[in-house]
Amino acid sequence: VLARSSSFRVACTAPPRRSVFAAMVIKTELCHFTEYRIYPGRGQRFIAKDGKVSFFITSKVDSLFHQRIKAVKLRWTQAWRRMNKKGKVDENTKRRTRKAAKFQKAIVGMSLDDIKKKKAMKPELRQAAKEVAAKEAKARTTKAKSAPKAKAGAAAPKQQAKGKEKLPKAGGAAAPSKHTKGKK
Q1: How far is Cα 110 from Cα 108, in angstroms, rounded to an integer?
Q2: pTM greater than the 0.85 cutoff
Q3: Which of 54, 56, 62, 61 is nearest to 37 (CA)?
């Protein structure tokens, strides 16, 4: 026989109960068309001739699937939401644009060392070198222009004489005109 004393009750009492409802795992399947969750006891299973199993949440979805209506075209399906970027967007999927790293390459006329030397030069020296190079180029072009003129002046009378000697080709009879319809 147990004694019912107050000290006994205090010793046996359990700590206050926390929520007893643990997360109960329910096996759900996904609708083939809408991608909604289908809980046990719901939905229709369709097995095609080729053996492919489709599970639909409602008869409406089953009907739409058999009418061959695309889920992407219906606004209430997950496929449409995914296609039109609705709902939650993961941070991982957003891509950050990276700035392209500057990279120095040698150019056809100059080596990489020459380019670095030119960049290291003071702007005044670079400007002076540019002016000197421009003067040289100008002198070369004027020299090149004057040389062909002298040669062209001597060659011009010969070309004119040749031009007079050439006569147009006359192949005997005149060529038939294009606008004749079957007439000869």
Answers
A1: 6
A2: no
A3: 56
CB 113 within 8 A of CB 105: no
By the 8 A CB rule, do 61 and 30 touch? no
The Cα 67–Cα 61 span in angstroms is: 10
Only one residue has tokens 């929520």, namely: 19
CA dist 122 and 42 (Å) reads: 81
Dump pLDDT digits (tens) for 28-70. Answer: 999 999 999 999 999 999 999 999 999 999 999 999 999 999 9
Cα–Cα separations (whole angstroms), residue 145 to 6, 56, 149, 157 = 124, 85, 7, 20
Over residues 103-133, the pLDDT tens digits come to 777 778 788 888 888 788 778 888 888 899 9
Q: Which residue has the tokens 């010793």?
A: 11
CA distance 70 to 61: 11
Q: Which residues pair with 38 in a beta bridge?
A: 29
Per-chain mean pLDDT for the chain: 78
- Beta-carbon count within 10 A of 179 CB: 6
